[in-house]
Amino acid sequence: MSVLRILHLVGSAYNEFYSHLSRLYAQDCLTATADSSRYDFQIAYVTPDGQWRFPPSLSPEDIAITKPMSLGDAVKFITSQNIDLALPQMFCIPGMTYYRALFDLLNIPYIGNTADIMAIGSHKARTKAIVAAAGVKVPRGELLRPGDIPTITPPVVIKPVSSDNSLGVALVKEATDYQAALQTAFQYADEVIVETFIPLGREVRCGILVKDGELLGLPLEEYKLDPHDKPIRKYADKLKETDDGNLDFSAKDHTKSWIVDCNDPMTPRVQEVAKLCHQALGCRHYSLFDFRIDPDGQPWFLEAGLYCSFSPRSVISSMAKTAGIPLNELFMTVIHETLRSNQ
To answer: Which residues cross the membrane (predicted)?
Structure first.
């Protein structure tokens, strides 16, 4: 196979938080997948002001000294580089939608789900409606806008409809706590979803990998929760801020999360539901879904995470490794699927 020129699309067109998050994951990916015999990596870095840079690395120094470009100039530059495919590494809403759509316009294949599927997956209420129509169980919920009054009796979970990493998420146990929780959630989105709290049995994620056109269910990842002290996951379980103000991963060890034994009877049950979600949403290449398992063993769909950065610490990467698929093989698999689907 000839060397593939792959453009990593990094940064955020929205704010500094997502810019740091994108750079964190993308740097891990660049380091772990570097193979000059297979890939020629290029970097496009977008800042919240809409400017583009094409730095030689993702170090803050290289980004700072690289000349910024307008969108028009960036498009001219990209089209002159003979890019074989792109890997979107942006986690903000514009990055997951508009910037992916740009590659459709430029006729450059890209790894991961399409802009329209990402737009649906980033809106928790729309995602729930689609998978529910396919027969997947979802908690009862309602979509609120500022000024709306919730009608569901607590306990409920409140979530900004389009934020990730548990930003603004809260468990409301009493109706008197509604106002404060909604006020916090509306700081992160114009719409908020309120859904019935599912009693804790277990909480897991399930990844789906497309390999040679077939859906492969990956091992589950389970999170340590406690019905009394920690009934839901929060932001601190996922990311932390370092002393220099940058983002880093919260510790990923067996005390917080672990890969479930493949012989666990819940694994095939959740995998089948995850495949239903993947198909209902029209996903391609890979997908990732969160499920709450109630005390009776019933999986309930919570949300979709339709992206992977291909960092060793990405959830899908960890799941694939446990299934005997190392990161380099995972990366080659999605590249093959991307090029195959664009033939």
So the answer is: none
Strand partners, 205: 221, 290
For 132-169, the pLDDT digits (tens) are 999 999 999 999 999 999 999 999 999 999 876 678 89
Q: For residue 254, what pLDDT is reported?
A: 60
Write down the pTM of the prediction: 0.90
Residues facing 39 on adjacent strands? 4
Spatial neighbors of 242 by CB under 8 A, at least 6 apart, are 248
CA 175 vs CA 144, 151, 168: distances in Å: 15, 10, 18
Closest of 86, 101, 97 to residue 40, by C-alpha: 86
**Which residue do the tokens 């406690």 mark?**
226
Q: What is the DSSP track for 121-185?
A: HTSHHHHHHHHHHTT-----EEEE-TT----SPSSEEEEETT--TTTT-EEE-SGGGHHHHHHHH
How far is the C-alpha of 22 from the C-alpha of 88, rounded, in Å?
10
Q: CA–CA separation, 201 vs 223, rounded Å?
A: 11
β-pairing verdict for 257-259 and 239-241 = unpaired
What is the total residue count of the chain?
A: 343
Q: Which contacts qualify for 183-191: CB closer than 8 Å, 24 or more apart?
A: 185/158, 185/159, 185/160, 186/146, 186/160, 187/160, 188/160, 188/162, 188/163, 189/160, 189/161, 189/162, 189/163, 190/145, 190/146, 191/125, 191/143, 191/144, 191/145, 191/160, 191/161, 191/162
Side chain identity, residue 182: L
Q: Which helix (H) or strand (E) holds 105?
A: helix 98-105
